[in-house]
Amino acid sequence: MNTNSAQAKKPPAKQKERVIMGLQAMDFIQHGTEASLEIVTPLGQRLNFKSNFIGFDDQQHIFFTMPRLQKSEYEEFFMQGFNVDIEGISEQGEGALVRFRTRIEHVVFRPIQLLVFPVPQQAKLVLLRNEVRYELKLPGDIQLSNRKLRVVLTDVSSGGCGFSFDAISPEFDVDTKIVLEVINGFTGDTYALSGAVKNCRKKRGKQNYGMVFDEPGKANCRRLLSNLIYDGTKYVFKSPKKDQTPGA
């Protein structure tokens, strides 16, 4: 039975949404990952902002960075007991949104700025995709108007992929059409993964994007997947010296 090929059989379809315990939800959000937060006042006023997840402790506290806002917004919204809706992205498995509601427990300004919330009793896990996503670390290029942007293809599935780069710019808007070219270092073949940007998040100084393939992009992705093999930690290009996939 072939267990190493990137063309492995898809697992059974899983339910799109499920409820998990609050502390378990923390394991799905990586430290340093950007999340979306919304404070809701007792009068129904709302404030949306981005913040980075720092982590949690054994006292069931979770910690987020403080956003840069106006002084009046701090005074109006950052009050102990106000509800906060939090949404983060999990990179595990098929990928998911982690959503939960908690409340402001502490707003720390000194010696460091910090938001402290209690761990929620439960959270909602919403699966983003049905197909398997393969972990990669392949170099690629995106042609800009005046230069090529070197990126790293971080994961790929039959319908889309993720990529990242260190540069502060450029920034791609959602629905921007792009072509990410990956070259097979063994054969010289080029795989033009074309499609549209669907999400962006910043993590540890890197810009991380997700894109969805169009039909030509899907066709080239199938070609790419057929030439990958699992090396024990991630998927890489097959060596031309290996005529058969291990485990076949």
Automatic annotation (TrEMBL):
The keyword Nucleotide-binding applies. SUPFAM superfamilies: PilZ domain-like (SSF141371). GO terms for molecular function: cyclic-di-GMP binding. Residues 31-120 form the Type III secretion system flagellar brake protein YcgR PilZN domain. Residues 129-230 form the PilZ domain. It comes from the Bacteria. Keywords: Bacterial flagellum, c-di-GMP, Cell projection, Cilium, Flagellum, Nucleotide-binding. Pfam families: PilZ, PilZNR. This is Flagellar brake protein.
